[in-house]
Amino acid sequence: MKKVLLLTLLPVAAMATSIKGIGENYQDWDLVCDNTGTCRMAGYQEGDGSEHPVSILFTRAAGENAVVEGKLTILPLGDDRDIQVGQDIEIWLNGKSLGKVKHISDDVPDKLTEEQTKALLSGLKKESEIRLTYGKTTLKVSDKGAAAAMLKMDEFQQRLNTPSALIRQGQEKHAVLAPQAAPKIEAVSVNNHKTIELKRGEKQFKHVLALLRKAYDGCVDEDLESQDITLYPLTQNKVLAEALCASGAYQSTNYYAVLDDKLSKVEQVLADQYNGVGGDRKQGYAFVRGAYKGRGAGDCWSIQDAVWNGKIFILTSEWTTGSCKRFPDGAWQLPTFVSDIIVK
Predict the structure, then answer these.
(1) Could you give phi then psi for residue 240, rounded to 5 degrees?
(2) Which residue, of 62, 119, 230, 334, has the greatest Cβ tally within 10 A?
(3) What is the pLDDT of residue 71?
(4) Cβ–Cβ under 8 Å, residues 257 and 212
(5) Strands 137-141 and 130-134
(6) CA dihedral 164, 170, 171, 176 (to 10 degrees)
(7) How far is the C-alpha of 215 from the C-alpha of 204, rounded, in Å?
């Protein structure tokens, strides 16, 4: 097989950081930490069937003095909506009220107070009942898996047995994980947005298809040749070729490859981890995105983006929306890799 440049999971620029993000699930709780050292811990209603979708998110950056921020989100149900903007939500821990939070918006999560956050984290160290009440509605947030998620967060941030640990506190004086700056990744502006369609059966289509097949053999042959190939102009006399790689019941993957503008050779293969191409309208740079459903309902996604830096496409973000818990498009953005994009 012809040797081409394959896009790896992490860009070269990210190698400067010593932190690799993680994503773990513990029953009804997710724990996701990114390459800056920030961890996000999300808990949901028990099960994923007919229960009313509700979630609490705890976020903590790396660093000894980093505080934990708490948020909650509720999916309004019913034609008449069971929760209204401006309505108070009362939080209960083991039968004791922790006070109320005002539902400000359906689009922005409601913030917990510092006292509510501390009380919930303390209660979740052991078996506890968390309830949210408003109007005639009572919702429960599961405690199953919360203690394990907190322990993993402490381990990732190197807090075990130190005073700043959430669950296994101690008096050890060793340094905890220091926060890392997000890597800076350059993106080059692409001024030409005119695409070219290579029609099936035409000579140029067959030529490019042969190049793509020679560079990567991981696609379904029938799918690869079933649709036209689209060419997107880049910079430095390069183009991005887009072809269908494999189609499934509720999602598909595309085959992306960077070629010279004479269509004589493949210079980079992005293969089948992406399924969409686009551009930032304000900044003008090109990117590809992989957005994949965890199941047909579309209530949980994994997403990654890569931008054109003038030579190759390079990964800029990787995140999940959390567990499949009936929130349309997922409950949260939980990144394992973040970066700062600099447009030149």
Answers:
(1) -105, 125
(2) 334
(3) 98
(4) yes
(5) antiparallel
(6) -40
(7) 17
Amino acid present at 54: V
The tens digit of pLDDT for each residue in 194-243 reads 999 999 999 999 999 999 999 999 999 999 999 999 999 999 999 999 99
**Residue 218 is encoded by which pair of tokens?**
């991981």
Arithmetic mean of pLDDT, 338-343 = 96
Q: Which two tokens stand for residue 175?
A: 């340094």
Full DSSP string of 215-259 = H---S-HHHHTTSPEEEEE-STTEEEEEEEEEE-SS-EEEEEEEE
Encoded tokens for 222? 């029938």
The pTM assigned to this predicted structure is 0.91
Using 50, 70 and 90 to split pLDDT, how confident is the model at 80? low
Provide the Cα torsion 104, 108, 110, 111; round to 10°. Answer: -120
pLDDT (0 to 100) of residue 47 = 84
Strand-strand pairing, 266-274 and 5-6:
parallel
Direct distance between the N- and C-terminal alpha carbons of the chain, in angstroms, rounded to an integer: 35
User: How would residue 79 be classed by pLDDT, with cut points 50, 70 and 90?
Assistant: low
What is each CA distance from 274 to 26, 100, 146, 270, in whole angstroms?
A: 28, 43, 33, 7
Q: What is d(CA 13, CA 265) in angstroms, rounded to the nearest whole number?
A: 26
* Domains, in order of start, for the chain: 5-13+183-343 (no CATH), 18-156 (2.60.40.1880)
Angle ∠(168,174,178) on CA atoms, nearest 5: 90
Residues constituting the chain: 344
- Degrees (nearest 5) of the Cα angle 60, 66, 68? 40
Task: Reduce the DSSP state of residue 147 to 3 states and report it.
Answer: helix
Q: Is the pLDDT of residue 7 over 80?
A: no
